[in-house]
Predict the structure.
Amino acid sequence: MKDYYNNKQALLSEIINKAENERILNKEEIIALLNSDGNLLCESADKIRKKYKGDFVHLRGLIEFSNICRCNCFYCGLRAENKKLDRYRLKENEILQCVKFAVNSGYKTVVLQSGEDLYWTSEKLCTLIKEIKKHDIAVTLSIGERSFEEYQAYKNAGADRFLLRIETTDKNLYKHLHPDMSFENRIQCLKNLKKLGYETGTGCLVGLPNQTIESLADDIIFFKELDADMVGIGPLIPHPDTPLANANKDNFDMALKVMAIVRLLMPDINIPATTAMESIRQNGRIIALNSGANVVMPNMTQGEYRKKYEIYPNKICINDSPEKCINCIKSKIESIGRKISETKGYRKDAR
Ligand code: 5AD
Ligand code: SF4
Ligand code: FES
């Protein structure tokens, strides 16, 4: 038994050394790391994060500007068929107020996130982006699938980055969970974003029903093949008003391992400690920051709207103000000896 344990540890060390030195692992090696307890892996991811990204943490101010969505993703509380949710759409001046707050608080990036809300035409979004770009900050969009031409228009208006998670690379699972969407189109959108010169973020959900360890390994390989600039990993948190209400809740550890492997294989990218991680594990973001992450996305949404952006239940900070969140997260980051970055934090900025 002891020999077996020692051999297993030796094999894990060998795989981790290979990842650290060569930045490439085959699927079997990734699976072995996903099946490990994760301790050695997270330690190594923390070391690689420090070497390539330094101790700076980039804050991205998240503005949830509409919870209206035309899609029906099986896992998400914002899905169109969830009639229990009270819908809202911020006005342009409300969004700009959030942006001003962000700028005054020292944020160098705002993330505009919404459901797939077609009220926001290309024209309206471009006007908004141009207005925001008058402040010297980076703009990230997280608004779902649009055409090449629309992505191009936002880019021309000044958008810098785009977040679009692939959610899962298991094609059958993707089709099952997204009844009215196309896996091929999602891949195409990601390729279009890269081609247009966006810093492109993607990522996956961990803990979907019928998702296998093999398919998580494929997700990691996909991020690397796409050469994603950012990768966000979210543990699934089952939402009671969705078809996945009864899915497994205990997805933190696996999500953390997926994230740590991404850091080993893509040492210079930006990796957020996701809000979902903190929502299911106390200090989840700090644990993530100590396991490879270098970005946090504090919520900047004001007042009543926060509660209504209920992608999943028990989301942290729904009763807190933007002021409270920024102070809270800053002190947590400093408490682990890390510093708040004062740059826009592009991938190529290295630190
Ligand atoms: N649990 C965790 N994350 C979720 N998302 C959607 N629903 C859930 C859920 N129930 C994630 C998706 C999406 C991001 C904005 O939120 O991965 O891309
Ligand atoms: Fe809409 Fe995004 Fe939720 Fe899917 S995950 S239902 S696209 S908000
Ligand atoms: Fe919102 Fe801590 S980040 S209260």
About this structure: The chain has a mean pLDDT of 96. Strands lie at 56-59, 61-66, 109-114, 138-142, 161-163, 199-206, 230-235, 295-296, 339-340. The first helix runs from residue 2 to 22. The first strand starts at residue 56 and ends at 59.
